[in-house]
Design goal:
This protein is α/β, with parallel strands linked by helices. The protein has a domain at 41-54 and 79-228: 3-Layer(aba) Sandwich (Rossmann fold). It has helices spanning 53-61, 102-112, 117-130, 146-160, 176-193, 204-207; strands at residues 11-20, 27-37, 42-46, 68-72, 87-90, 164-168, 196-201, 212-217, 220-221, 226-227. Strands 3, 5, 6, 7, 8, 9 and 10 form a 7-stranded mixed β-sheet that branches. A 3-stranded antiparallel β-sheet has the order 2-1-4, with helices on one face. A hairpin with a 6-residue loop joins strand 1 and strand 2 (27-37). Helix 2 packs parallel to helix 4 (146-160). The longest helix has 18 residues, at 176-193. The chain is globular and about 45 Å long. 43% of the residues are buried.
């Protein structure tokens, strides 16, 4: 990976807003969010379901466009180059391709990025093994549980070695022990790569593992860099 100045923001959002629909049926999912994310930061987006966390992650990943405001990726390049590339997003819902086995699903973004098939497969297997999924290499999604599919989607993000990891409720379908291991691996991998990690969650036990807590309530983001373990972090519990 190319070195990035730690003082150059990976992402910069200015008065970012997203509205779905129009007229009387319009729903404002995000109101005027302003924030910056820098290399190496670990940030928990904390809030209840429907608060706007997923909308913000999708905008940061370049999967959606804001209806107002501006988003930039100063250290990462333009939007088109983000998929696949320096940003890896773990979606909340199912995201595996039904016709591909676990290794192929994890390796696919690497192949699309132009990495040699054998190297992509090697990195995919290493990521699966790191999440204790070695016995699922050849399994198709239809043969997996929801929790297993979720961990394979996380392995896919790990294998990409991006500058920015975005994880939307990555432990939502996992038991406590497995969830703890997944967060351990995400934190370790981000540190190893000098990458930023942003995790959306309504689980305070997950949020307190990260360095900073950003509450999201009714589509409004408070991006004050508050250590997640300080008393103020209580406002981040769902």
């Amino acid at each position: 990976m190319t070195d990035v100045d730690e003082n150059t923001a990976l992402v910069r959002c200015t008065d970012l807003a997203r509205t779905y629909g129009s007229g009387r049926t319009a729903v404002v999912a995000l109101h005027g969010a302003t924030c910056e994310i820098f290399p190496g930061e670990q940030i928990a987006l904390m809030g209840p379901s429907g608060s706007g966390k997923s909308t913000l992650l999708h905008l940061i990943a370049g999967l959606d466009s804001p209806t107002a405001g501006r988003i930039e990726w100063p250290a990462l390049g333009d939007r088109i180059s983000l998929r696949p590339g320096p940003v890896a997003l773990v979606l909340q819902g199912p995201s595996l391709l039904a016709s591909l086995d676990a290794v192929e699903n994890v390796a696919l973004p690497l192949v699309l990025e132009g990495i040699d098939d054998s190297d992509a497969r090697e990195r995919a297997i290493a990521a699966l093994e790191r999440l204790e999924l070695a016995d699922l290499h050849a399994k198709l999604p239809e043969e997996l549980s929801g929790g297993q599919m979720q961990r394979i989607a996380i392995a896919r993000a790990l294998a990409q070695r991006p500058r920015l990891y975005l994880a939307d409720e990555p432990t939502g379908q996992l038991d406590h022990e497995t969830a703890t291991h997944v967060i351990d691996v995400l934190l370790e991998t981000a540190r190893e790569n000098g990458a930023a990690l942003v995790v959306s969650t309504h689980d305070a036990a997950v949020g307190e593992r990260l360095d900073h807590c950003w509450p999201v309530v009714d589509g409004r983001l408070d991006a004050t860099r508050t250590p997640s373990k300080t008393p103020k972090a209580a406002s981040c519990s769902a």
